[in-house]
Amino acid sequence: MKTPLAALAAVLGTVLLTTAPAQAATCEPPGVEKFGPASVTGAIVGASVHEGKAYVVTRGQKPPVLAEFDLSTRKVVRSVTLPDAPATGEPEGAWATAVSGGKVYAGTYPVPDLYSFDLATGEVKHLHSFGRNGGFVWSLAAAPDGTLYAGTYPDGRVWEYRPDTGAVRNFGVLAAGERYVRAVAADAGNVYAGLLDKGRLVAIDRASGAVRELAQGPGGIGVVAEHGDRVLAVSGTTLIDVRKDGTDLRRVPTGAGSLDAIVSTPDGTVYGTTRPDGAVHRYRTGDEALTRIADAPSPGDETRRLALTGEGALVGFSGSGGMWTLDLPSAKAEFVDLIEAGLPSGAERPQSMLLVPNRAVYIGGHFSMDVRDLRTGEHRRFRVPGEPKDLVRRGNKIYAAIYPSGQIIAIDMRTDEVTSLGFLGHGQQRPWDLEYDPRTDKLLVASAPLGAKLDGALSVVDPDTGKTDVYEGVIPDQSLMSLSLDSGAGVVYLGGDVLGGGGTPPVRTSASVAAFDLKTRTVLWQVDPVQGNRTFQDIKVHDGLLYGVYKRNSGAWIALDLATRTVRHQGSLSGYGELTVHRGRVFASVFFGGGNAYELGTEAKLLATGLGDEWYTNPQLHFEPGSWKAWALSGRELARIGLDPRCPQS
Description:
By secondary structure, the protein is mostly beta strands.
């Protein structure tokens, strides 16, 4: 009879890569066994609609796919890939798309480049780069004369590209310290830009380049649209509706959520979808509130683009990789999975992983969960409402902390049923770390805010009722990147980040560690272990020491004596990642240097290298009980790695 691993290998195929020479009998065999793509995706970012067709760009695949989708047959009819640009690097997707002059234009990330796809010939061209690797083209709009306008990160600029001549210019600094032009729209005379950090809506004269402010929002502006003599913008839970000359400014509450996509009709009626629920709403200038007209066609999903068809239908494209139509008179919706419609799927960079010993490996992707059954070797995949940043098990359920909603969900391992425990709220949309405390039967969440805010939070969640206590600013002026539980002592330790949400200048210079008493719900103490290191990536408590790996400065690690709160050991790894305690030892898996795994003691001992840098969040190790075998990644493939620290390394 085949073992569970053998069954899995028989289905997926196994490759053994030796990482060390033959060892003594006391060593478990080293090596890397690979089992195919860990997380498979059809997620999309950019989308545009033109003459009965939709054009979508995938997220996370290398190279990204630009696909043409027929709205009448609901099938993908052709697809191309966006090639690497030798001077800048590899794109992974394109948030920004626009159609003009018989071509689809795509603005990519993490290289902020512009590509074109000729609808007649199928030719793909790289046109221009707006910056270096690590940047984004967040938004793209075509003016009536075909001129393109792009909003970029991290320079916070609006760029003009002339398809007829290839001429490029930018309009300079729109606001001091601004990094994100998250949304743009254009008419014959102006470009309208939404600034995420500074929350401003500005109009730029296309001829002179003069910039004027139309409105200041209560938060970052992520959606902009123009119609007639008005401009609409979304700032947090406020819809801004203003004339193009800056007069008649109206601010309309959107309710509990924020609009993530809007589209207007010729008569000025506006339709939009709200995040995080995905419901559909209607608005007209003069309304004091939005009118909900339909439940979410794709619950909990992000809408990348809305369009209207001549048949009285609203068409939406979901970030998870779906397309839906809503019949406006009847409010009935139909949903199509783009992979099932023929969109080429591919391996993406995983968000998170959880090993259920002798049962399955769960891999969190973008709006999906992949499951590898260790008993049968079978693979299945189901949708979840966002990116699972961390996973933890309690009984027959797995709990996931979801970005970008800040939602906590439960997954029944027997049925794959997904239920929501609710949202963290308090602006805490970036949950980074999640642990289960068996003593109190509570979930603990470390989170960061989204946007121009510094304070993160520790949240204590009841997994049965969803009741959540949020302790915002538990480390003042810092967000939380990690936590580590000493359940016996009733204390959770917190690792900070002085950059907070990243949209406002930090006021601290060194990341802190704090001890939080779960019974009294108070901070016992706080210390800055290393001056000048601004961000902890992960912390773990073991045997009286708190081990920490820094993201800033990348790869620095410490072992902090909890009794004296002084650093006992420290050193440097190839990069940052996550820590794991297993069989009385502390391990680190980190980015850079090829993707390395270490054991940490008085110094760092390299155990394996060449694992790659393909995690989306942070490299992780998930050890099998009683073994030195750990489930992880090798490149983008699911892998089982031999990490016996007793074995000498090559």
